[in-house]
Amino acid sequence: MRILTGNLFILIFISIFTFLFIQTTKELSSAQSLHNVLDEAIELDEVTLTNNSTILDREGHIISDVYAGENRIQLPFSEIPTYVIEAFIAAEDHSFYEHPGFDMSGIARALFINIQSSSVEQGGSTVTQQLARNLYLNHSQTYERKLTELLYSYHLERVLSKQEIMEMYVNSIYFANGVYGIEAASQFYFSKSTSELSLAQIAFLSSIPNSPTLYNPLMNEEQTHERKEWMLTKMHEQRFINEKQFNAAMSEKISLKVVEKHDQFPDYVTYVFHELEQLVAKQEGYAQRLRAATSNEERIVIHDNLKKRVNELLTGGLIIETALNPHIQQHAVTTINASLGDAQIQGAASIIDHDQAEIVAITGGTDYQKFDFHRGYQAFRQPGSAFKPLLVYGPLFEETNLSNSSVIDAGPIKRGNYEPENFGNAVYEKVSIEEAFKNSYNTAAVRILDMVGIEPAFSYLNQFDFTQISAEDHILPAALGGLSHGVSVNELTQAYSVFSTRGIYRSPRAIREVSDLNGNVLYAWGSENKEIWSQTTVDQMKSLLSSVVSDGTGQPANIAGSSYVGGKTGTTNDFNDLWFVGSTERYTSGIWLGRDEPSSIYEYSQRNLHTHLWREIMTGLE
Description:
Layout: H1 2-24, H2 28-41, E1 53-56, E2 62-66, E3 71-72, H3 82-92, H4 104-117, H5 127-136, H6 143-159, H7 162-172, E4 179-180, H8 182-190, H9 199-207, H10 221-237, H11 243-251, H12 266-283, H13 286-292, H14 296-316, E5 319-322, H15 326-340, E6 346-353, E7 358-362, H16 388-399, E8 407-409, E9 430-432, H17 433-438, H18 442-452, H19 454-461, H20 489-496, E10 504-505, E11 511-515, E12 521-523, E13 530-531, H21 535-551, E14 566-571, E15 577-583, E16 587-594, H22 602-606, H23 609-619
Parallel strand pairs: 1-5, 3-4
Antiparallel strand pairs: 1-2, 5-11, 6-7, 6-16, 8-9, 10-13, 11-12, 14-15, 15-16
Helix pairs in contact: 1-2, 1-4, 3-9, 3-10, 5-6, 5-7, 8-9, 9-10, 10-11, 12-14, 16-18, 16-19, 16-21
């Protein structure tokens, strides 16, 4: 009885609605009145369909598909194949171009079936009704929802063109397995774009949205084929295809070639997300607002807004071109995992093409998983003696006329309560600067910083990209890497690249440019160059760094046959951290070893694991 009452009610409503609609074609005043009512009663919120974003390597190959829940690649109407539109019209809505949002004859047929079965089995929905349901309503099988759907559909037809409705429909419908829209479906199931699909493949894909569970090709391929044949028959009956096309499509063999989501190189991709946030922050003013914030609460709000903005961009569809070298990245990851797999320590590396100022590889730790804590850029540790070239010796050559052969006092030094010691409590006298550097004498480094001046020395250091250096670090222990927070291996490697670029520093980046899906460049780092060291300073520093690996503390890092190898070791108190940062002719790279909870790794220092590992990584780059 309730079903019958509902059917009678909806018949009465449809009759009234039809009468009003017919009247709108006769009397403008009545039309305006009805439209005003609809305008007030129905608020069509702006709908923005999400889009996939992609991250590309240096050769333009996709390394990561970025989407949250909905795998969608939007197509403008002009790029939707005609067969796709015709397939949905033939199967779902053959009077699409004529009706005002609903099809009275279709609804009547559905009602007749429902009355016969005493249930709500069919809805007679047009494409417009389905779109209204997907975007603004729900899928409940009630007459209240059905009546609301009719009003929304009619209103949609008033504010959108038929092309806009079809475009939104084709891009919004669900194709099972987390896939939305025909283009994403084509790439997921057939590994190609819709423009490359055959008629049979289009009919196959267009079968899925009618019932994504029943016609899921990965679960019920036979039913999908049955629906495909039904759709081809409908297309033939409605003369969208001729007999020859129909027969060819019916006999064509369909072979799925499913492509799972691209999700490679988690270490590098995680860093790209971090750098994207930095890039947007710089170009849209968030970074400036963060610097100007006067409270931690204000900074949290600004940072939350920044994250929302980045997420908005990603869900809108971005193409992020990066400098990733897949070979180098894989080699670095494999080498670190193999070397540290049985050890109870962690390690991370950054590798930079210093000529291009690009980060070609970065690792986040052994067996790294995407978005885990990333030791390449999130772990801030004391750099030990690896800090000396940047804060001590570089400023020394810039501020004085001394050279590598000049003599410096390496004897004991005491300034107030600070009295640094050399490794093994060794005591030295006057030695050449080269001798002090390659053997990493602490007393000489502290004396040099004291001589140059803490503030002048930091004036050079502050031009690099260290994010955790603060005013409280402006003390003599900084000469030995004694910092309040520390540096990341990526920051330190970035800074070392200046020794291979004639003293001119350009911040190395992973992201080349960020474009929208139409190829318009939205974001790109500028090419700001900072002249930090003179050529004379660079020449002397490269010579010192080379002496470290030829006959100093970094000898295990030497690479036979290489035209240039130079670098610096770093060991912190109690052997909690091991560093080596250095360069060949083309690449600057750094490696850090340690434990997340700092503790001694003395045995690995004795084995020179850090320098051996650096050499192994670097010898596999070319």
